[in-house]
Amino acid sequence: MWKNCIIGVTFADMRYWLLSLFCIYFSPLWSQQVSPESVVRKTLQAVRTQDAPQIDGMADVQWEAAPVGSGFVERDPVNGAPVSADMDTEVQVMYDDVFVYIYALMHDPEPQNIMRQLSERDEEPNADVFTVYINGFNDFQQSLVFGVTAAGVQIDGKWIDNQLDLRWNAVWWSAIEIHEQGWSVELRIPLAELRFPKRDLQTWGINFERQIRRIRTYHTWNFVDNNIENFSYFDGQLTGLQNIQTPLRLFFYPYASLYHNRFAGQNEWVPQGGMDIKYGISDAFTLDATLIPDFGQAAFDPVIYNLGPFEQQFQEQRPFFQEGVELFEKGDLFYSRRIGGPPITTPRPDAYQEVQYAPSHTELINAVKISGRTRNKLGIGVMNALARPAHAVLIDTISGVTVQQELQPLTNFNILSLDKRIGSNSSVSFMNTHTLRNPEYRNSNVSGVYWDLVNAANRWRFYGNVEWSHVYGAQQKDGTEIIGGVNKIDGNHRYGLSYVRRGLAYDIDDLGFTGANNYHAYYGSYSYRILQPRGGLNSMRLTGNLAYSRRNVPSLFEDFAVDFGAYLTNRRFHTLIANLYLKPLGHNHLYDARQWDRHIAHPASARTRVWLSTDYSRFFALDFTVSGQIFDEDKRGWYAVNVSPRFRFNNHWWLVAGAEVDQMFYDRGFATRTQDEIIVGRRNRLTWTKFINTQYSIDNTKIVSLNLRHYTSAVEYIDLWRLSEDGGMAATDFNENQDGTLNIWNLDVRFSWWFSPGSQLTFLYRSNANIFLNASETAYFQNLREVWEQPQRHSISLRLIYFLDYNRVRNWF
């Protein structure tokens, strides 16, 4: 939750840092083991109400009947410190047959200084925040999270595996009020959005958290011991819930959208409509379906000029594949961008044909997922998606006749996940993915077993997996992966060992992301951290890591690496992160040659990175990063500098800009290949990335945002060589030009209005252009001019999505 650092560093500041590090480094080495049985759990009673309170942020008379929970404890930075009465928080809970109501009063002697910057829903705000964690099954495993900022903006998600997943969105109501006592908030959460067992008398796990942004403190109702990596284990108890029934959970999200696209003088109007459905099969299982999905308003991907051997990975932007997918992420078998991604094959024109059109992605017909967890803690997830066939259009250059060529047939993607929770902190899981096309194409079936076992004292974690990939159809191969490790996860001193082995035929690329294979590696890690503020630091972590890896077949040394890191935040909320990464024995790149039994040898090197960041709560803040690498090779090196200022003009408007220059000298890598040779080259590369992101919040339901990115990367080959068997370079007659420059421009302007809970109207204007030159153009403004002169792709879209709850709709008739 923090991301802050240094600007305008003075000599006194540096002395402050060094003195703090000196004192901490030579402090006594100790770690305290906390037994889970020693956890004291507070109890708060919820009361049934016949008169629902008005959700306005103020304490109506109905709240006088509800018991008050108070006595919050500081979680961070001073873990366990009592909270003074003038900064304490009071919470109350009521319920009826439809809703749970929560009221919280946050005392603050300086209400005029309460931070309340507006933000978009689920964004990390520069504002105070009140959050409630609700675990209806009271198993210390997974909580639903509902938060409200002091500006009235909602934040919701799931607390899973000690992390907050903000991809889950619920439909609920809230309101805040700033007053002379501080500020207060009311929440009305439908029982239909919660998960709990069918029992006459309920006891839920619950905790409340308050963030005071201006002093960077976090207070919790039930004490959370930072020495133990299990936030949910410290839930308190919510009692008094009687005779509540799980309501029918049937939600509809019909949508309508209209796109106007313009490119090279051609105009296109595209109307679309469809629906998402969410149905509660039981108190624990949910079905999600998207019918005629529309992903046209997903954010643009930050595409780069990729010289590496593996494809570029992108984050998921589509809501259906973001929300409720935690069960499908137990292993590394599911890379959701495969569904609806590029076709599996590329166009294959003959000597007299040219490609007139080739789709960049496949279209989905529908997608469905079912997920939930049984009473005996068995999580079950099933996902299925169906993609349409994809075709390219080829034109005969002699006759002018056009023909279609199939790039991918009708494709079915299926995923099954089983996750058995053991106790309150361990699990064993099974995953299977199956991609089915017709036999003339590639098909696959991949399975994995995963274990994550933590001892009762939350001190040791044992983890690992065994995966098997089976590719059949047009290709035939079977591969395996084995991973095992152990980590000490409590106390000041933490360390671990792990082992990874991937076979040559291991391939999960139909629904996963394979990356490297045919290797085995050993890893060791150590870290020292302070669990309480000490000296001039709020937090500190020092790390050291070792890694050794080899190719399996044929056996070959790949890499030996040592890295050291320091992560520091001082009392002024400035953060410094520094790393030193050493490869003293050189590095044999096993994949850059694009052939499994060849490699490219690189000399010994040392790389460093320093990141400084200032306090984001100020009007002006700055992120600054400088990185560099030196090699045991004449003229070869690399550096990068990134400067990113951010401005918070007022509680409505913020702006972040960034500029990065990345320069490589005499880099060595794959260039191309001929029928007989792998061609490598020494090359210079200059990359510029600039962006502007700004957002204006009209209020807590309406925002206007602008995202602009210009990326340019130029590669110039100094010389070309044949790759020798030992990974070195030998003379070649090949001299074809391999230079290139990629230029990309993206602009998104968006207006979004949450006009009622769950319902949204979005207007998006999008402009983009790109150009690739077979030459190295390093002049930045020349590149900017060239991409601006390209035909721009303009798109204007309007999308309306409306939330319908069946329980309310049926009362309309």
Outline, from the CA principal axes?
A: globular
* DSSP helix fraction: under 10%
Q: Tally of extended strands? A: 45
Mean pLDDT over all positions: 92
Number of contiguous helices: 3
Low-pLDDT windows of residues:
1-36
Instruction: Report on the biggest sheet.
Output: 24 strands, antiparallel, barrel
The amount of beta strand, in percent, is over 45%
End-to-end Cα distance, whole Å, is 47 Å
Structural class: mainly beta
Question: What would the keywords be for this entry?
Answer:
single chain, 45 strands, 813 residues, 24-stranded antiparallel beta barrel
Describe the protein's architecture and organization.
The N terminus is likely disordered. The chain is globular, with a radius of gyration of 28 Å. The longest helix has 15 residues. The chain is mainly β and 813 residues long. 3% of the residues lie in helices and 54% in strands.
Topology at a glance:
Blueprint: H1 11-25, E1 43-45, E2 47-48, E3 73-76, E4 89-95, E5 99-107, E6 129-135, E7 142-149, E8 154-160, E9 163-165, E10 173-179, E11 182-190, E12 201-212, E13 217-220, E14 236-242, E15 250-263, E16 266-280, E17 285-291, E18 353-357, E19 364-373, E20 378-387, E21 390-396, E22 402-408, E23 411-422, E24 426-436, E25 442-454, E26 460-473, E27 477-488, E28 493-502, E29 519-529, E30 537-551, E31 556-570, E32 575-583, E33 587-589, E34 600-602, E35 605-613, E36 620-631, E37 637-648, E38 653-673, E39 678-699, E40 702-723, E41 729-730, E42 740-756, E43 759-773, H2 780-788, E44 793-801, E45 804-805, H3 806-809
Parallel strand pairs: 1-14, 2-4
Antiparallel strand pairs: 3-13, 4-5, 5-11, 6-7, 6-12, 7-8, 8-9, 10-11, 12-13, 12-14, 15-16, 15-44, 15-45, 16-17, 17-19, 18-21, 19-20, 20-23, 21-22, 23-24, 24-25, 25-26, 26-27, 27-28, 28-29, 29-30, 30-31, 31-32, 32-35, 33-34, 35-36, 36-37, 37-38, 38-39, 39-40, 40-41, 40-42, 42-43, 43-44
